[in-house]
Each structure stands twice: as C-alpha cells, then as structure tokens.
Amino acid sequence: MLDHERLDVYQRSIEFVAVAVKIIETFPRGHGGLIDQLRRAAISIPLNIAEGSGRPSGADRARFRAIARGSAMECAAILDVCGVLGQVEPDLLAAGKGLLVRIVSMLTKMCR
Tens of pLDDT along 95-111? Predict the structure, then answer.
C-alpha cells in the first residue's frame, strides 16, 4: 500500500468520486459543461492528495493539499448548482456534500 492510500482523506475522496459519477449519470443532456467541471474537480481531489503525499518537503505537501481542498470546495459549489437545477436526488446531493464537508475539514487541518 502506498502512503497516500493509508490516508482517510484520500479514501473519502475516492468515495466522493464514486458519488460524483452517480450524480453525473443522472443529469440530462444539455449540461455538458457542468458535468465536465464536476468530473474534473472531483478527480482532482484524490490526485492532488496522492501527488502531495509523494513530495519530500512539507511546503510542497501543503501546497498540493491546498489545491485538493480548493477542488473540493469547487465540487461543493457545483453540487449547490445541481440542487438549484433540481436534476439530482436530494439524498445523493446530501451524501456528496457530507463527504465534501469531511474532506475539506481534513484537508484544512493537514494544510496547517
């Protein structure tokens, strides 16, 4: 197992990617930009956590974790937009937002 795979924040971010894919699958045609943005931002979270974990200096690790945190915040905003559009089940949105709250909280602590 690699170092980043042991991190709870990494595991939760992978879990969020699965939720994001479910959300994406429920969207009707005509929302390609929003779907693409959610897909890219969701995938960015675990990728930046993993890349940061491989960096030798604390400053580099913190920088990649901050980028991952920004992507998580972006995903939260996208889910808010999805909620306003009414295209996604409220339970699915709540599950995604719950994961994002945990992820942002963990990353905030890790960036200090």
Answer: 999 999 999 999 999 98
Name the amino acid, one letter, at 23: I
Contact 72, 104 (CB under 8 A): yes
Find out whether 41 and 71 touch, Cβ atoms under 8 Å: yes
Structure-token pair, residue 62: 């913190």
The full 3-state SS of the chain, as one line of letters, equals: CCHHHHCHHHHHHHHHHHHHHHHHHHCCCCCHHHHHHHHHHHHHHHHHHHHHHCCCCHHHHHHHHHHHHHHHHHHHHHHHHHHHHCCCCHHHHHHHHHHHHHHHHHHHHHHC
Largest interatomic CA distance in the chain: 44
Kindly report, residue by residue over 34-89, the tens digit of the pLDDT.
999 999 999 999 999 999 999 999 899 999 999 999 999 999 999 999 999 998 99
> pTM of the predicted model, to two decimals?
0.95
